[in-house]
Amino acid sequence: MGHIGTRRIIIAAMGGLLLLGLFVGHRVSQSWRTRTGGSIISSEEEVAFSVVVAKAIRGSLEEMISMGGTIVPQARVEVFSSVSGQLQEVKVKEGAQVKKNDLLAVVRENESKSIPIRSPISGIVVEQSCEPGEIALAATVSGAKPLFAIANVESVKVQVGVPESLMTFMKSGMQARIRVEAYPLDHFPLAIFRGTITSISPTLDASTRMATAEVIVDNQDGRLKPGMFAMVGIVKEKLRDVLLVPKESVIAGEESHLVYVVKGNTVEEREVQVGASDGRWVQVLNPTGSQNPSLSGEHTAFRPKESVEEEDEVVTVGARMVYDGQRVRVMR
User: Fold this and answer.
1) Start-end ranges of CATH 2.40.420.20 in the chain?
2) Contact of 42 with 327, CB cutoff 8 Å
3) Band of residue 267 on the pLDDT scale cut at 50, 70, 90
4) Could you say which DSSP state residue 208 is in?
5) With 60 as the cut, is the pLDDT of residue 64 above it?
6) Angle of CA points 270, 256, 303, to nearest 5°
7) To which CATH superfamily is domain 63-71+154-238 assigned?
């Protein structure tokens, strides 16, 4: 009887714990419903991946040819002393902005005569290699060194290498667009500078098989600095009324490309063939009945996929992190 009584007590205690657990669970469920507006969030909704989208649009596109180059001053002048003597004064330092005929330094030729040295152009002092008390040698004397270098950067030149294949396409007078890393595309349109091709060398460098072209760019605000690397774009073709998606929405594949379209609260994988691009937008050629294998892992079967249509919302931020059928939450 002692053992039976003990079992009854244990069973009764377990039953009490079970009832307590159900009661607590009920209270937690009520509390969760209250905090979520009366409905319980499912585990699927909890793991929805946050994405940013943009609409596919119809518009115009300029296909660009891009070449790399270096920014140099429009003009650079080295300033020498006209006479030999001791530097009595140095009026400017490196980095100073000067106008044409501004006083740069004073050289004492002898006890009774001092000679002013003036800037031959307007620009920036990019080099200053003299100090008061030093001896300046006249430009005509062997071993004479420049006291200053002045660069005009109100407009600058971009020197680019032109491959042999583009020699017949490139012409003086063509308009160009210039980009530098200091001003990324999210600063658009301030990231794009406009210039004009002013010259193309008639011969190619024997080692690189490239010609050199010069592009003049207005730089009144001084944002382009000598020495910067620049990408120069020339319009190859102007396309109108074409289907466009943002470049960051396109995932490159070997035979086709992928775009993820938001439908409801999930994404659908779409195969696309792409055409021209201007660096921000990509043309979608929109084939029908594509038979390429899915790039998300389904390599065992071929199946047709829809493409992208105007007004479709395509994933931009997060495009490389989602998969076909994944639940997503669009960040507005």
Assistant:
1) 50-60+241-330
2) no
3) very high
4) T
5) yes
6) 55
7) Efflux pump adaptor protein, beta barrel domain (2.40.30.170)
